[in-house]
UniProtKB/TrEMBL annotation:
Top EC category: ligase
Protein name: Phosphoribosylformylglycinamidine cyclo-ligase
One GO cellular component term: cytosol
Main subcellular localisation: cytoplasm
Residue span, PurM-like C-terminal domain: 182-347
EC number(s) from the headed UniProt entry: 6.3.3.1
GO terms assigned for molecular function: ATP binding; phosphoribosylamine-glycine ligase activity; phosphoribosylformylglycinamidine cyclo-ligase activity
Keyword set, alphabetical order: ATP-binding, Cytoplasm, Ligase, Nucleotide-binding, Purine biosynthesis
HAMAP family reported in the protein's UniProt record: AIRS (MF_00741)
Cellular location(s): Cytoplasm
NCBIfam families, per database record: purM
Amino acid sequence: MSETSPNSAPSAYARSGVDTAAGDLAVELMRSAVSRTHGPEVLGGVGGFAGMFDASALLGYRRPLLASSTDGVGTKVAIAQAIDKHDTIGQDLVAMVVDDIVVVGAKPLFMTDYIACGKVVPERIADIVRGIAEACEATGTALVGGETAEHPGLLGADEYDVAGAATGVVEADRMLQPSLVRDGDVVLAMASSGLHSNGFSLVRHILAERGIGYGDRSAELGATYGEALLTPTALYTAPLLRVLEDPALDGAIHMLSHVTGGGIAANLARVLPRGAWIELDRGAWSPLPVFRHLAELGGHTLESLEGAWNLGVGMFAVVDANRAPQVAAALTAEGLDAWVAGTVSTAERDLAGFEQGAKGVDGGAVRLVGSYAA
């Protein structure tokens, strides 16, 4: 129902700054994109109070374990708002949520999103949700529901924030977990597409200190800063699931790690068992130009930024040493550039200088050694 009618004054709610008619229009603009993520398991379509998902497919599992994750995009949204480009933020959101689920070997089932904004601009909201829906479609995730909330007085008219949550499933005896990691396992790194959705407070601080605007063009990046920084987060879920489900590689991948907040070493350490350690060889890869350029602008070394940015690695796989070449080839064939970055050891040693565990997990230990490739 609209907030106003031709024969009435705006309602008290509309006068307070909340436009439910704009919200309804936003839903109509995004409806087709959302519907494309729905298979026969999704009941009720778009617009219900609750998203419904038929879980009868889980009856085929011997012991289905549900995996869940929730996240946002962080201050990357400030750049989208600054240059009025909103069609990539949705992929960032899906990647941050769903690629956490695949870390345990789980297949995502469904996702919901939440957008809080100062004012509903239907076209802007539709751009965001289309991006979410397209990324959900690419990862095999049903977008079963969402909410757009108008918060006038709390957020500016052009401000918004996004968050999402997803649920997946994995057969209990197929779950990836630290206990599967063995001495001698090989660590494969997978390339990132750029900054992904972490460390943007530092990015924004660096540019602000240098007086650089998001519309300014960077010769080093071949685009405006805003365009380069909005490169969407890579989606790893679908290709990783295909490799995990390849009978020829059954059991070859022991653990995965999604490189997000906390940096390179910390995220890998949290998926290792206690007593295991890894020295990652910086020389195995060359950080992308966006990292080198921002580091130079800020007067930082790349090494000092390893706890803030992914520096070119978006995901790690810890794999059986004997089958590491086959796994690397399979990942590359799926479009994930992969390379050997280290080896797991359980030998006793002094772990001073190693990152040990993270996010409350008492895991293994990781440090980076050497110098980055040119």
